[in-house]
Amino acid sequence: MKASNPIFLAQSDTTAGFLCKDYKKLNALKGRNLTQNIILTTDSLKKMQSFVRIPKKYKKEVRRLKQTTFIVRSKTLINSLATRIVVGQHSEFLSFFNGLYSTSANRHKQRFSLEFALTCATFIVLDKRGLKEDKSSSIYKIGSYNKKRIR
């Protein structure tokens, strides 16, 4: 593993997950297609807006909704990018980065395994919540004029 892109294992506001600057590394780790879309997490709307354009009518909602992921049009990529602002204890860790790609700490389409998660992580970020599987975030796709619930 490259030391320049370590894989962090941390409990997010929803479930235990891997975080890394390289989304292809996370997809390979989980056994997924390397080009599969993945969630980009940040700790603030300001950081998120350096990656994506949030339509004005949804900015307040994106900033305030907890445990929610939004798929929006990317500024740098041709396709869309799923982004999330994380609040609470996990956001303190994210504040050290512009943004990290995030995915659940399990193999593709399988349940959470602490053994798998611990063997794959370069660094483990623990707090009083420990590491556990929990309900995943809601996902909405937003455009300039409409919003659609995906999960």
TrEMBL record:
InterPro entries tied to this protein: DHBP_synth_RibB-like_a/b_dom
Protein name, per record: Sua5 YciO YrdC YwlC family protein
